[in-house]
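Task: complex structure prediction.
Instruction: return structure tokens for all chains below.
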Amino acid sequence: MDRSKALAALSALAHETRLDLIRLLTPRGAAGMAAGQIAEALGMPAPRLSFHLSALEQAGLLKSRKVARNVFYSVDPRGIGQTISYVLNDCCSDHPEVLAACVHRRQGADAVSGTANT
Amino acid sequence: MDRSKALAALSALAHETRLDLIRLLTPRGAAGMAAGQIAEALGMPAPRLSFHLSALEQAGLLKSRKVARNVFYSVDPRGIGQTISYVLNDCCSDHPEVLAACVHRRQGADAVSGTANT
DNA sequence: TGGTCATTTCAAGGATCGTTGAATAGTTGA
DNA sequence: TCAACTATTCAACGATCCTTGAAATGACCA
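Output:
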């Protein structure tokens, strides 16, 4: 992931509504949710939702697919993962204390250490 | 780390200059660098630098200490680590695929899995 | 005390971002 | 074909962010 892509992804994440979208969509996995369902779940007017969905999609954090009249949005796990990696690796050069602080908070959630790809 | 702190930290990271600052300061560790040194290293006018440094400090990503006439800035590893954790844990609920994408890119940099706190 | 150096604050401007309602495009079913 | 439905695009407005040069603050040294 290059500098400008990472910057776009971070900008996309730096917004309450868009973080809510990630939070809502992540558990749905690849199935995702239709735009209308999302609007209802978050109580948000359609144009505003559409604006943020396309911002996230353009940043590579969301994927969309059309089914009949609906457009289903789902998170792109790689987009988010690579953004995190960019910060950790390219910006912090895997600095031990940063990684430690990152792991520390997630004790018990041991997925990073290897159970992730099951 | 609560919602608004995480949002502030992500906003702070979502800027090229501020990412450059993190990149420059991380390897220096707790010693950090004086504002003047930073300005010289990045070829940046002082007021602009000051603006971004205080943005990062307010977001909890940088710490500062005064030594004689100089102000030394250093990264706060916990601030960055907790921000990453917030995205991974609170927003993505440790979704396996996100974590996998995060780890995958960092093969060889195995610090996250446990060697971080040495 | 007066001068110099390092840094921050201030005010002004231009640029970008986010929200809103209205209008538009595309799909489905009668 | 027509009506209903889903979602996106558009234009406009207000709010926020970033940059810049000038001025101010605070610390050190002669």
